[in-house]
Amino acid sequence: MDRKKAGQDPAAAGARPLRRDAELNRRRILQAGREVFAARGLQATLNDVAHHAGLGVGTVYRKFPDKQALAEAVFAEELNEIAAAAHRALAEDDAFGALADFLEAALERAAHNRGLRELMRHPTFEGTGLAQARREITTHCAGLVARARAQGTLREGVTEADIAPIAAMIDAVMALPGERPSASWRRYLAIILDGLRARPERTPLPAPGDAV
Known about the structure:
One of its GO terms (molecular function) is transcription cis-regulatory region binding. It comes from Streptomyces rapamycinicus (strain ATCC 29253 / DSM 41530 / NRRL 5491 / AYB-994). Keywords: DNA-binding, Transcription, Transcription regulation. This protein is mainly alpha-helical and about 210 residues long. It folds into 2 domains: about 15-65, Arc Repressor Mutant, subunit A; about 75-200, Tetracycline Repressor, domain 2, CATH 1.10.357.10. Helices cover about 70% and strands about 0% of the residues. The chain is built from 9 helices and no strands.
């Protein structure tokens, strides 16, 4: 039977496997990018990613025209996963515990991802996907803080604007000379979290920007 008469265009039939192969290569490049940027930071090149993926550099360039395009795709995925974790935390009954667990999980991810820590310090790559994911994380963190405040378990005066500086302080610990990121940051996060807990006898926090 004639394949065209049977409605099976050979060109269309061949296109499906090609599309599948192209998508598989794209996912392979993204996974390699995640691993390379995590290990080497943002100075890693598309050549590094291609080598790690076991693909020709031309294949990588066809999917991502430059390092910025790849980094934005990789870190949009990373930040979307962090945003999803923050959203799930909003459903927990214990609001302060949910906030603390989210911070620990997000920082755990950063501890093993040099590129993510560099992105936190210097948002060099800021495409639409990254900006949207950052907004979602900020929104969900604001919800976590508001719930903990409403339950009376968060220290008076702490706001959602304090979350990013707290993460930056822990990142500074991770970056200490001679320190492995996984070695001591949990100790300092525990100290900070203890300071965030509500205790009636504590004096009010100074407002942001107040002179000391």
